[in-house]
């Protein structure tokens, strides 16, 4: 009887031996995904190496003075990227100065139960769709609609503040100021989306506690909710800064692409990205190398900003 | 008697503020509260305004130019009237298709590796960090890279500018999105499903391909749709990789026209016909991209239900 039982169990529960082909397939699939995943690291390194190699000639002839001189003279082969670097930093930072209050304010408006939930969803959806509109379409809109529409305002700015060096040229179409405004439109969705997620993740107990001790809604927002969400919001702002620095098309179409330095925000300017977009296709010789050098600077700038963004989010996040 | 009842009452008033509990809108704090609510509402309006204005202009300017000719004809020579953007539409489809054929398999495989195999290994973290860095690389840099690697070196049959080079440049921009959404989608698949599959004797490969991937199909396809929509509108990586062409596509190893580059080129031309075609191309592009985004939202709703 026992032997009979044992026999039956044997027949029912033999361990299945994995065939060789199955093991091979398993290992092969793992190695395949590993190889394709490492492609990310390889591509990143390849980008760095290609741009670095390309810029070596310019590095050798211009050195670090490339960063501080503003000559961009293909005839005499003298290149300095100061105008473009200055333009990149000024347009991206000033656009954030405008976009951060707008974006965080919008995020608060659509998370803090100030309006019916249907309307909140609609505003959220519209801001997300704004992020999906291609940069080149925004550039087209900026040239034909936005810039003519805001020119009276810029002229007013010039008459009121024309005595400062920042507004001492008359607005004549393309310039830094319209470029800053179109950048605001482009980074707003990033700041709003990340701030909204950050505010939504603040635990409900914190709000209840704040209301429980009798604060007003905005008292709770400023004293409790924003401080709890601040690390993610700062991270989002840094990501937006990286995006603004690298933004190419809309800025290229509206900034005027001037190679001369001008402190005035109403005058045409340039950014590294728009310089690349404008000149790379027709450049040859050391100009290509100088452009690659500028591209390397842009890469380093965005890399630093993006890594700082991740570090801020990881390091500053409050433990509730 | 009366004194005994007033006594605790007076001690109460020392302990508690006896102001009425009902809401008084004239209090400074409540006025300030209202002011801030108004300001945030104003900011939200300002944030939504550009989208409404851009959409209205693109719709108004673009829709009246929509005709059959737009889809079937080539753009006119400078100074001439009429014409269409047929070659650019076809070109956008070709270049985006090339980019998708590269980025989707590689990205999904990379996401599978990160979620299913890498665990917390150092290499997985390197890939994950590298993916975040790649996502932050400006799109124009990807164009510069492909120019240096493919266009200037003429590795494709001695051709310099080509649809292939443009597609590769776009695929670099799609890759991080697809890896990230695949990784996150796979992490949402309950571990019980994997254990169940192993329990009935499935191998790792069968578990992933037959059980885990199908369970995460909606988030992965959402990510893919969003990445394709973004790539279709990208211009910066294409200007000096795919270049432009005034003719119908001549195979994937030749320069090709795309709608985004067409908008850029034609927007700054001083000719009315070209400017109008730029608006028409914007209309087609924005409609395609908005449709793709709404499709992606619908897909992600589907996975939540």
Overview of the molecule:
The complex is a heterodimer of chains A (320) and B (305). Chain A is mainly alpha-helical and 320 residues long. Helix content of chain A is 73%, strand content 1%. Chain A has eleven helices and two strands. Chain A has a two-stranded antiparallel sheet with strand order 1-2. Chain A is flat. The model of chain A has no long low-confidence stretch (mean pLDDT 87). In chain B, helix 2 (28-63) packs across helix 12 (272-304) and helix 11 runs antiparallel to helix 12. Chain B is built from twelve helices and no strands. Chain B has helices at 2-15, 28-63, 68-72, 86-118, 122-136, 139-151, 163-187, 191-199, 204-215, 217-233, 259-267, 272-304. Chain B has a single domain, classed as MetI-like (MetI-like fold, Orthogonal Bundle). Chain B has 305 residues and is mainly alpha-helical. Classes of the chains: A mainly alpha (320), B mainly alpha (305). At the A-B interface, helix 2, helix 3, helix 4, helix 5 and helix 6 of A face helix 2, helix 4, helix 5, helix 6 and helix 7 of B.
Topology:
The complex is a heterodimer of chains A (320) and B (305).
Chain A: H1 2-12, H2 20-62, E1 72-73, E2 78-79, H3 82-109, H4 117-132, H5 135-161, H6 176-200, H7 204-212, H8 217-246, H9 249-255, H10 272-279, H11 286-316
Antiparallel strand pairs in A: 1-2
Helix pairs in contact in A: 2-11, 3-6, 3-8, 3-10, 4-6, 5-6, 5-9, 6-8, 6-9, 7-8, 8-11, 9-10, 10-11
Chain B: H1 2-15, H2 28-63, H3 68-72, H4 86-118, H5 122-136, H6 139-151, H7 163-187, H8 191-199, H9 204-215, H10 217-233, H11 259-267, H12 272-304
Helix pairs in contact in B: 2-12, 4-5, 4-7, 4-10, 5-7, 6-7, 7-10, 8-9, 10-12, 11-12
């Amino acid at each position: 009887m026992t032997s009979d039982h044992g026999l039956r169990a044997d027949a029912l529960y033999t361990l299945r031996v994995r065939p060789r082909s199955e093991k091979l397939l398993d290992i092969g699939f793992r190695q395949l995904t590993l190889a394709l995943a490492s492609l990310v690291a390889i591509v990143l390194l390849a980008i760095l190496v290609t741009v670095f190699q390309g810029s070596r000639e310019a590095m050798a002839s211009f050195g670090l003075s490339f960063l501080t001189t503003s000559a961009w003279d293909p005839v005499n082969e003298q290149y300095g990227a100061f105008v473009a670097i200055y333009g990149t930093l000024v347009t991206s930072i000033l656009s954030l100065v405008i976009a951060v209050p707008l974006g965080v304010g919008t995020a608060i408006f659509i998370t803090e139960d100030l309006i019916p939930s249907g309307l909140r969803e609609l505003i959220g959806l519209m801001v997300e769709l704004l992020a999906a509109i291609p940069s080149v379409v925004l550039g087209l809109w900026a040239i034909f609609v936005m810039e003519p529409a805001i020119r009276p305002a810029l002229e007013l700015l010039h008459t009121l503040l024309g005595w400062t060096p920042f507004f001492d040229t008359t607005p004549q179409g393309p310039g830094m100021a319209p470029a800053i405004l179109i950048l605001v439109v482009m980074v707003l969705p990033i700041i709003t989306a990340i701030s909204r997620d950050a505010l939504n993740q603040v635990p409900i107990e914190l709000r209840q506690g704040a209301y429980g001790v009798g604060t007003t809604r905005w008292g709770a927002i400023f004293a409790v909710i924003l401080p709890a969400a601040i690390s993610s919001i700062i991270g989002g702002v840094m990501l937006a800064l990286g995006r603004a620095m690298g933004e190419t098309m809309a800025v290229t179409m509206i900034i005027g692409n001037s190679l001369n330095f001008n402190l005035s925000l109403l005058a045409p300017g340039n950014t590294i990205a728009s310089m690349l977009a404008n000149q790379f296709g027709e450049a040859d010789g050391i100009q290509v190398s100088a452009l690659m050098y500028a591209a390397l600077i842009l890469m380093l700038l965005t890399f630093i900003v993006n890594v700082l963004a991740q570090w801020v989010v990881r390091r500053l996040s409050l433990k509730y | 008697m009366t004194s005994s009842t007033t006594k605790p009452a007076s001690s109460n008033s020392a302990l508690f503020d006896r102001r009425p509990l009902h809401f008084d809108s004239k209090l400074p704090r409540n006025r300030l509260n209202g002011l801030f609510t108004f300001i945030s509402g104003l900011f939200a309006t300002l944030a939504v305004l550009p989208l409404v204005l851009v959409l209205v202009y693109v719709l108004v300017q673009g829709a009246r130019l929509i005709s059959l000719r737009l889809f079937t004809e080539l753009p006119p020579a400078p100074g001439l009237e009429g014409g269409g953007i047929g070659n650019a539409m076809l070109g956008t489809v070709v270049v985006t298709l090339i980019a998708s054929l590269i980025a989707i398999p590689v990205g999904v495989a990379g996401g599978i590796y990160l979620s299913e195999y890498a665990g917390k290994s150092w290499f997985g973290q390197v890939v994950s960090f590298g993916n975040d860095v790649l996502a932050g690389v400006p799109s124009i840099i990807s164009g510069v890279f492909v120019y240096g690697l493919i266009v200037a070196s003429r590795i494709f049959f001695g051709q310099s500018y080509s649809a292939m080079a443009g597609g590769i440049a776009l695929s670099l921009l799609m890759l991080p999105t697809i890896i990230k959404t695949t990784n996150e989608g796979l992490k949402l698949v309950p571990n019980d499903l994997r254990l169940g599959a192993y329990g009935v004797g499935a191998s790792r490969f069968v578990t992933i391909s037959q059980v885990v991937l199908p369970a995460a199909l909606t988030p992965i396809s959402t990510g893919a749709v969003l990445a394709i929509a973004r790539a279709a509108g990208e211009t910066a990586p294409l200007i000096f990789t795919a270049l432009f062409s005034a003719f119908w596509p001549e195979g994937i190893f030749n320069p090709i026209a795309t709608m985004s580059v067409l908008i850029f080129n034609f927007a700054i031309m001083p000719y009315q016909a070209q400017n109008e075609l730029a608006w028409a191309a914007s209309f087609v592009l924005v409609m395609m991209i908005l449709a793709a985004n709404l499709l992606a939202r619908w897909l992600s709703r589907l996975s939540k239900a």
